[in-house]
Task: structure prediction
Amino acid sequence: MQVMFSGSCACCAGDAQIDHLERQLVEHFLARHGGNPDLEGLLRQAQEGSAGDGSRVGRMMRAIALEPGSAAAAAHATLLAEFEALLDRLDPP
Result:
């Protein structure tokens, strides 16, 4: 995944960059895991929620935490491990 960063502009609030990054993350996960029935619904929910529902990543994490049953636990663990690896790559050494 390639993540683009840039400085803030005068026309946008500072949250615009975070929103763009979160949109990229959820789109990346959908591209990689959208065919998995244990993940597609929660990723679509994260992608399509309204601003009043919190951030895209927040909606994704909330859906994982609230999804009942352990049938999807392995898929959730895979997604969370990939998310952690992406965050580690964003963290400067």
User: Anything to note?
Assistant: Residues 2-12 have pLDDT under 50 and may be disordered. The radius of gyration is 14 Å. Residues 15-90 form one domain.
